[in-house]
Amino acid sequence: MKGSRNEWSGEPDCEHSKPDKKGCARPKPGEAAGGCAFDGAQITLLPIADAAHLIHGPIGCLGNSWESRGSLSSGPDLSRFGFTTDLSEQDIVMGGEQKLRGAISDIAVRYHPPAIFVYSTCVTALTGEDMGRACQEAEREHGIPVIPVHSPGFAGSKNWGNRLAGEALFEHVISKGSGTPLTEEEAAQPSVNLIGEYNIAGEQWDIEELLNKAGIRILSRITGDGRFGDIGKARFADVNMVVCSRALVTLARRMEETYRIPYFEGSFYGARETGFSLRQLAFLIGGDELDRKVSRLIRNEEEALTHDLLPLRKKLRGKRAVLYTGGVKSWSMITALQELGIQVVGVGTNKSTDEDISRIKERVGLDADLIPEGGAARILKTVRERKADLMIAGGRNLYVSMKEQIPFLDINQERHKAYAGYVGMRRLAADLVAALEHPVWNLVRRPAPWEGARANGTDR
Amino acid sequence: MEPTVSAAGPERVVPVHQPIPASPAGAAKRLSVNPLKISQALGGTLALQGVYHAMPILHGAQGCAAFTKALMTRHFREPVALQTSALQEFNVIFGGEASLFEALDTIRAKHNPDITVVLSTALTDVSGEDIKGELAVYRKKHELGGKLLTCAMLPDFQGSLESGYARTIEALLEDVLTETSRPKKKIRNRVNLLPGAHLTPGDVMELKEIISSFGLEVIAIPDNSTSLAGHLLTGHTPLSRGGVPLDLLKQASASEWTIAVGASMEGAAKLLEKHADIPYKLFAGVTGLEATDDLFGFLQTIGSEPVSVKYRWQREFLMDAMLDAHFVYGGKKIALALEADHLHVLESWFREMGAHPDLRIAAARPYPGGKLPAGTLIGDLGDLEDQAAARGADLWVSNSHGEQGAHRLRVPFIPCGFPIFDRFGAGLTVSVGYHGTTELLNRIGNYLLAAERRDHA
Prior knowledge:
By secondary structure, chain A is an alpha/beta fold.
């Protein structure tokens, strides 16, 4: 069955593949909270804005998931279209392959995309359709790349899907170099591929402005605000930066092996991590001039930031926060919050890798409660026990927080605010102050006029 | 740089309004563009939010539940009770029973819901799993102590949100009504209300108020008005946060009447008739003067109190508002894409306002049967966009996924149905009864007015 564990599963740079581990953890029936492999594949590939994305399956897979992420495009919007074969009972009985070919053809003829990504789902993987062959034939017929993504939901977790998508990108796009060659201008400038940066709320535009100030060009966006043609150029970059997803480390490692492009994992949350990432970029690209430029940039940006944050830090100092997110954010956000004077008293680790966890521990020491699993109830317990002033998490927990009347900041993919880089740090600080100081927290604790003695005026 | 959602940047060269030349006229559609349809399982999950202390379990890969939960939370801005059996590849090959039992064990141990309903998905139906049989085995093995455990078959290769919702209510009623301990003696002045999937929690609250004003006691099945409308009473809980409790649900068999709103609820009403001998009255909808008059006319015949002064005034307000606004509605071309029941309700109401709801797309065929009116197509939002581009439209009414198409055509857009996102108050919007119709009329009228002013500017 396609989508099974294959040579991509034994990722040497992933600690889940080490001998004492049995691969990524199995989701637990009755208490699983995350998305499936199909979800993960979409997260990684949908931000390629000019490509068409066709979901081969019954309606649930696309119908309940499209237009759900805050990944923004600066131009084309074809990826915002929801395309699906919407398989009916009869299609499934008769086999959906013919319908799939028709659907690919309809997209190619009407929308002229530079490429079509075709995603398998549980049902089409189960009925054993040869999606790969259908894609190959369609590619020949229409003269554009038609890329099969074998990511049925039951293949695993969201992270696993990220990795499957990385595999599809490497095998079908990057290694085929289907993009146009570099322009002279592109070739002249040091360049980086951002891997696993999804331009949530436009964060990448802030990052790009910063990198441009340092004289570094983003060559391929993998995949926030991505363009299919640009991703084909990825192999010409000087360095790969894996920004958010550990799951895409495999992609970076394959590119290192194949094209000798060095990579590192970094973050743009908080001044310290941003500075570290910029220095790493300068180091891996090399050259004294770049090094000097980056050092100067960091110094200037940090000075300006410190000045601007002064009044906000006064308000945030000593506030206690519980942080519940996944991956890189689970540690890079800690640094950002600490820079603002906030004490992190609890950290969720259920979506973190072992390496993430050791980085979390480095940052919070013994002061914070690590929350391995247990969902909302467990987070609330930490909030109460540690007397936290606010909760910083994803949209999934937003209404948990509202029902318990705990100030909240959304830092996951559905949000509308960009928090990356020095600019993002200012927004983060301002939003934290706004969340904490809002009058609503007192108003919702106000007793109703018909409750207690005050109701009939006897307390006068 | 401030983040902006760019719809049509300079790079965009995609010609979106050409008809698809590759599919010959009359040929079966093979590509759905911007689907309108929502999976049945989501409809089932929605229905169960209106039953107190309930936990639906989506029997499928964990993504089925994660997507459903995220989408419903986005619409209602409320926590949603839902769990998953988290099927993995080997479960599908060797059968999902073990995963399902593990999920049931975990949920019973951790949350102990009064009502647990297993909702099937396309995956379990295609792999041919016998969920009913599995649950029979589970019930034999475990003492459930009066808690209800049942299932509804909701594959997403059939039907849509509306049928999933209705089927789930039918499954619940079938279970409750065939129980031997159910009350058989009728209780005077008590009625069942079966609100269809198209009604918001706010609508259900309004209907309950209207019905009880006639001296009637109402059991709403389901009752999303006390769960999804928003409240702070229970704090956080993973189970449903309100709705009709199990003991009241069991008393549905003692009611004198059943009032069903939305044709899709007729199957459930018939179950109450069949098992408990309760006559029912079906209303296609309760939006508009005529439709609301029909409900009030009926309530007057079965109620113990006369119509209250409040509603006499509300009816005056509505008629006056209709007169005030009829200028902007008259002759307007309306493009509608909704679930079948909802489509029918709004089509009738737009006609009452002298508008022409001529472009109509339904998400799926009506449940449990019946025909769509002539000229209504089953299709997607891509179809509505093509029709609106070809024939013109003054107003576009659909779920939020339609906004991009309406925007491309520069047609004023009204979010309606499910899902509605990037808007507050989707769950509290009221469009039933005299007051609700007035609200709807003014809300949409203001859009039409604004569009007219722009045209003349």
